[in-house]
Amino acid sequence: MSLTSSKRDQAEEAMRRSWFPVARLVDLDKPVAATLLGVKLVVYRDGSGQVVVQSRRCPHRGGDLSIGEVHPASIACPYHGWEFASSDGACSRVPSLADQSRIPPKARIRTYPAVSRFGHVWTVLEEPVGPMYDPEEWQDADLVWLAADPIDSPVGVGVTIENFRDVAHFPFVHKVSMGPTPEVVEALDVKRDGVDVWMYRPLNAGTGEWANDGDCMMKYHCIAPGLASITYEYQKYGVRVVAGFPSPVSYEHVKIFWGVANAADYSGASLAENLRVEEMVYLEDVPIVENLDPREIPWDAEVEEFSVPADMFTLNYRRCFLELMRRTRESVDAG
Question: Does the pTM exceed 0.90?
Answer without folding.
Answer: yes
